[in-house]
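Troubleshooting log. The previous run stalled partway through. Resubmitting the same two chains, unchanged.
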Amino acid sequence: MDFYKDHYDVIVIGGALAGLSAALMLADKGKDVLVLERHNLPGGIATSFVRGGIEIEAALHEMMSIGDKDNRLKVGKFFDDMGVDIDWLKVPECYHAALPGLEVTLHPGLETFAHEVDAVVPGTYDKVLRLLNLCNTVFDSVNELSIHPMSKPMMLLKHEAFVKTAGYSTQEVLDTFDLPQKALDLLAPYWIYVGTGFRELPFTIYSVLMADYVGYGSFIPRKFSHEMSLKMAERAEAMGVQIEYRQHVDKILVRDGKAYGVRTARGDEIHADYVICSAYPNKVYTDMIEPADAVPAGAIKMVNGRRLSLTAFSVILILDKTAEELGIRDYSVFHGTTMDTDACYDELKGLGPYHYITCICHNLANPDATPEGTCSYSITTLPRPDGWKTVSADDYDRVKHDVAKQLIDTMSEYLGVDLLEHVLEIVIETPMTIAHYTGMWNGCIYGYAHTMEDHIIARLQTAEAEHFIDHLEFSGAHQISGDGMGPAVTNGRKAAKNVLDTMAKEAN
Amino acid sequence: MKVKGFLKDVGGASRVTKARLAAFENASAAPVRLDPIGAVAREWHPGKLDLVVTDVRPASRTTTTVRFERPDGGKLPPFYAGQFMVVDFPIGESLLSRPYSISSAPYQARLAEHAFVEITVRRSKGDGLICDYINDAVKVGDTFRGMIGCGQFYYEPLRDAKHVVALAGGVGITPFASMAREIANGTLDFDLTILYGSVSSDDITLRNELEQLHSDRLHIVHVLSGDEPDWPGERGFLTAELIKKYSAPDTTYFICGPQVMYQFLREELKKLDIPQRRVRFEVFGQAKDITAFEGFPQENRDKTFQLTVMRGLHKDVIPAMATESLVVALERAGIRIETGCRSGECGFCRTKVLAGNVYICPENDGRRAADRDFGYVHACAAYPQSDVTIKIPIE
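Second attempt completed without errors. Output:
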């Protein structure tokens, strides 16, 4: 039957944030785009579901790179430019750090944040602010250079801090500030949002993380991340993009080193000039390219040479008391027994107990998130896939419940309330849940680990050489900007830009 | 490494790039296809499977149990006791899907040989095409497609009390039969008392099979509503008084039965002042008579509208009655749509309404807020009230 056109300019595999961003940008430039999404709704993990009549956020903690309405950052501006009108709610704080001997709530604004750290660790204001300003300078450079590449001498002239910190890990740069341990502990909790311990994490990434979140705060859509995903999809369709749900792409068709279409699980062969793919390169290069010998050895070496970053495990509770009644005071709490991020990262290799935990209470940024008299409380750890790879289908339910119980017990003890006595609904999301709904390789939502061997600057510099199949672009957490819902948008735009650039080049 | 002098270093970018190239140079060129996490996800949720009927037997005077296995007898997906499966029935030109609670136990789906699942279905009193089909026409050797392990009606140890009172009516015993078998097998850990309402003692579904499972952890109390002078057990309906008699101080109540029983039990449970978190209703099922619900436009009750169906760029136009759900109209016309619970909850049949009006069954509106804003419906709970255009996935 005539479900599809004979030909599209671009086929986008995956209708999550990256794929939809790519589709929006291409449609905005008048391109004819088909999006194929395996699930029956857009967004990937940027979604929600309904349990017992209550809508529940699936994944989003805090959206970065949005900014206030009059001071938009790049992702917020992109949505505005594309006509994707999202009802953003500002998250009130950066986070509450619940660490041994430290109970501190820190708020956005570089100076505010530095003052609040200084209030706990007196005498650190100047150093902390200098660090945050350095982060901010590097952040500005990253944003500018990602749009306007320039020569090395020019870069050194205009982006000195960026250039001079490029070769160093977060730990190495933090050490030069000679801050007391307590202050360092308060500057570390966000590490989990980029997913590598400070010994390995490029300072460039730490800079972007801190400058964006601390400098500008974070946001959530009022009607959960499904509002964002759906509004992107609706806008894309209004701009002429064809989106088809429940279409699983099995193969990417390649001829003479160039992608020319896809084949779906139901057997449709669909042709296009370009393919943008959200599946992991690991999956694509080992299983999806047809013919398989169109994959050069370099592509396999590349995926084998990279380390998968984090997956996720969340217990989401709908509780039969309000946040206030339960003593939950902050939207976002980072709870840990140490702020040694390398030790935390190491622990994530296993199957628990997990000690570095992120808790979100939506009602504290969105009072109407759940029915009156109730609240939602999600408890999240972001494990590495290693431990979860050893779990069999028969062990899965036991492991899942053991880990969920440990997380709930840890937070019950912290709050001084037995959360298990208040559970209206419970949803346990695991790496397998993610793999089930999104097909992401080994359930990994964070792409490849940000390390000194897989540095964002190196990713930028080698991008062209790592482009193994013509007219095939990738979008998603496995691309240059890495993990997170904000970076997903940036990754999608980058893929679309590559397509547009190639189109322009080949037209000449 | 302690670095004091980084501010003089301009070679960082080159250094990290060299490190990257070296890491790739040293990596293996052998493809690694291992995705064990994805493999576990697929083992639990493989989607629709080919299933063959290996046994058909009466479960009472008016009910039949059907056993399904894989064609090779291999393991079936794990599921939770209480969940349902969706079975596709090719009938004439139509392909109809129906959800049925699984009456066998999860451990039986994981047996090394001849792993199986069973459903137990009551012959209808004239309103259930498929129920009659199962009771009359299904035979050993028939093959179907089925999806195992759907729905939220199962015991969750991190939420539910250690003592469960199941309130079952008629063929609503099936999810509890699954739980009872799993408890008897030692692989589900709670005490279960089933208060089981039937009309007459000679038509109690799965009676013999369940009574063999009686133990310290598992009690089955038959409650007869019909007039039987010699019946030694409980009589009447599942009243608050009766429920209280069999409850422990901390009890979770699971309820599954016909829609009239839900209305009755909601009132009875109110009398007992039970916390909301201790009461779990199985989904309502497709409304028997949509015109009985508040707000249904009565003036349309006899009308048939035009339903325009977009699948990709392909367009079909089919008739659709105001009193039947979009799903029923699609299935009758032989247009495939994925369905799960058929109760508006699971969202498998999420559909975009591009034009026209639909009535949403108020008992069965499990939509996301943003979906409501943009005209998405769950097609099993949406009834056309004008000519309507929808877009559904290509199956």
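Takeaways: Chain B touches chain A through 72 residues (CB under 8 Å). The domain at 163-281 of chain B is CATH 3.40.50.80 (Rossmann fold).
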